[in-house]
Specification:
heterodimer; A: five-stranded antiparallel beta sheet; 0% helix; B: mainly beta; seven-stranded mixed beta sheet; four-stranded antiparallel beta sheet
Chain lengths: 110, 114
Amino acid sequence: EDQVTQSPEALRLQEGESSSLNCSYTVSGLRGLFWYRQDPGKGPEFLFTLYSAGEEKEKERLKATLTKKESFLHITAPKPEDSATYLCAVTSGGSYIPTFGRGTSLIVHP
Amino acid sequence: NAGVTQTPKFQVLKTGQSMTLQCAQDMNHNSMYWYRQDPGMGLRLIYYSASEGTTDKGEVPNGYNVSRLNKREFSLRLESAAPSQTSVYFCASSERAGGPNEQFFGPGTRLTVL
């Protein structure tokens, strides 16, 4: 059974204070690792897909990286508008049904 | 494109009442999903439809039924609502049934069962 663990559960940063969110996974044959952003009262919004160890993707202040055991979402010089819950999900083997982690709630203070 | 739309946005039911949550997507996606999201539990899959004409149970299907009406629409029905079904319900879609592919989510339905 696929398992996804996100840490920390909650993170408070000052504007401009860079940090990283972690997503550890246990799967048999990773097919894809996904990062989503969820704003309060809204549905998750797709950010990135990573397919293999060593892969990196960037979007504005966000950079996602992948190893064989975990993924990091690096946030560089965050702004208050980056405040949201960030969700990680994986698909593995022959299944396209993702397993989601419980998310990291990020608050960036001005 | 509207993406994934859900109706209603909010609903209050009494125990034992029934209701149907509606979902539609305009991205010509093959696969559609229903999730519930509860505090501390994350997203849990209720039912999914790999393609038009097929439906399968997810992690928490008890108390729910689904209908894939056509390629665009996927509805979730609560036949006899219970307080344990108080939750936020999200519909999602993805392009194809095989291989890893990202999901696109609707805005959610916030359901309270009294």
